[in-house]
Design brief:
Radius of gyration: 16 Å
CATH topology: TIM Barrel
Structural class: alpha/beta
Helix content: 25-40%
Strand order of the largest sheet: 1-8-7-6-5-4-3-2
Number of helices: 8
Strand content: 15-25%
Bound molecules: D-xylitol-5-phosphate, zinc ion
CATH class: Alpha Beta
CATH architecture: Alpha-Beta Barrel
Order of helices and strands: EHEHEHEHEEHEHEHH
Number of domains: 1
Number of strands: 8
Length: 222
C-alpha cells in the first residue's frame, strides 16, 4: 500500500504562535510541511517570505520534508534562495514559467525535488512532454491565493487523467492536491491517484490539529 503524505499548510497556522504550531506538526503524523509563498502579482494576495521560512526551518524536525509552493512570477530568480532556506521540494506554477523545462532543470541542479502546479483551468495535457522530468505535480483544487476556499469537484477527473498519463509514460511523479481538502474528499482523491494531500484550514481551524492530521492519515489508509 502507498504511504500517502499529509502536508499541513502553514499558511493557516497561528503566526503569533508559530513555534507552537511547528512543534505540533513535528509531533504529528504529517510527513510534509506545505509552505505557500505568494507575491501579490501572480496571485491577489501576499503571504510570507524568507524570514518566516527561516524560522519555520529552524524549528522543524530533520525528518520532515519542506514542501514549498511558489505562487510567484518569474520563480527562477529565487531557486537558490529557497534551497538555502531549506526547501526539499520546490514547486513552481506552470502559468508562471515561460521556459518550464529550464526552470525544472535549475531546481534539480540545486539538489531539490521539482514540482509543477496547475491552476484549476489548466489541463493536465500541457505536461505531456515534461512529466518524466517532474518529481511532483500539484493540482490546485481551488484558485490559488487564499486558504479556506471550497474544493472544486472537477479535480477528481483531473487527477485520474494525470495518473493515467504518469502510468503510460512510466514516470514516478507524485500527485499532490492543494485546496479545500478535508475528511469528505480525502479518500476519493487517494482513490483517483493522489499521494500527497495539503490541508490548511481543515487542520489548523479544528479543535485538535494533531488529531485532525491523524484522522486524515487514517482515512488514506482505508
Ligand atoms: C492556496 C494555497 C493552499 C492553501 C490551502 O493558494 O496554495 O496551500 O493554504 O488551504 P486550505 O486547505 O484551507 O484550502
Ligand atoms: Zn499551496
Amino acid at each position: 500500500m502507498k504511504n500517502i503524505k499529509i502536508a499541513p499548510s502553514v499558511l493557516a497556522a497561528d503566526f503569533a504562535n508559530l513555534q507552537r504550531d511547528i512543534e505540533m506538526m513535528n509531533d504529528s503524523q504529517a510527513e510534509w510541511f506545505h509552505i505557500d509563498i505568494m507575491d501579490g502579482v501572480f496571485v491577489p494576495n501576499i503571504s510570507f517570505g524568507m524570514p518566516v521560512l527561516e524560522a519555520i526551518n529552524k524549528h522543524r524536525n530533520a525528518n520532515k520534508v519542506l514542501d514549498v509552493h511558489l505562487m510567484i512570477v518569474d520563480p527562477d530568480r529565487y531557486i537558490k534562495t529557497f534551497k538555502e532556506l531549506g526547501a526539499d521540494i520546490l514547486t513552481v506554477h506552470y502559468e508562471a514559467c515561460t521556459h518550464l523545462h529550464r526552470t525544472i532543470q535549475a531546481i534539480k541542479a540545486e539538489g531539490m525535488q521539482a514540482g509543477v502546479a496547475l491552476n484549476p483551468h489548466t489541463p493536465v495535457s500541457v505536461l505531456e512532454d515534461i512529466i518524466q522530468d517532474l518529481d511532483l505535480v500539484l493540482i490546485m483544487s481551488v484558485n490559488p491565493g487564499f486558504g479556506g476556499q471550497s474544493f472544486i469537484e472537477n479535480t477528481y477527473d483531473k487527477v485520474r487523467r494525470l495518473k493515467a498519463m504518469i502510468d503510460v509514460k512510466g514516470a514516478k511523479t507524485i500527485i499532490e492536491i492543494d485546496g479545500g481538502v478535508n475528511d469528505k474528499n480525502a479518500k476519493a482523491l487517494v482513490d483517483a491517484g493522489a499521494e500527497a494531500l495539503v490541508a490548511g484550514n481543515f487542520v489548523f481551524k479544528s479543535a485538535d490539529p494533531k488529531a485532525t492530521i491523524a484522522q486524515l492519515k487514517e482515512i488514506t489508509l482505508k
